[in-house]
Amino acid sequence: MCGIVGYIGKNNTKQILLDGLKELEYRGYDSAGIAVLQNGKFSSYKAIGKLVNLKEKTSDFITEGFAVGIGHTRWATHGKPTELNAHPHIGESSYVVHNGIIENYAKLKKELMSSGVSFLSQTDTEVIVHQFEKNIKSSTNAFEAFSKTIKELDGAYAILLTTISEPDTIFFAKHGSPMLFGRNKDGEKYFASSDTPLMGQASEVNYFEDGDYGYVNESEIFIFDKNKNKKDAIYKKISQNKLSAQKDGYRFFMEKEIYEQSSVISDTLMGRLNDEEIVFDELDENFFEGINEIKLCACGTSYHSALSASYLFERYAKIRTSVEIASEFRYREPMMQKDTLFIVISQSGETADTLETLKMAKKAGLRTLVICNVDNSSMVRLADATILTRAGIEKGVASTKAFATQVTIFWMMSLYIARIKNTLASKEIARQISLLREVPASVKVSDEMHEKLKRLSKRYLHGHGFFFIGRDIFFPLALEGALKLKEISYLHAEGYPSGEMKHGPIALADPELFTIALLPEHLHYEKSKSNVEELSARDATICAISSKEFDKADDFIAISKCKDYMLEFFEMMVVVQILSLEISIRLGNDVDMPRNLAKSVTVE
Question: For the chain, which terminus, N or C, has the lower number of CB atoms within 10 Å?
Answer without folding.
Answer: C
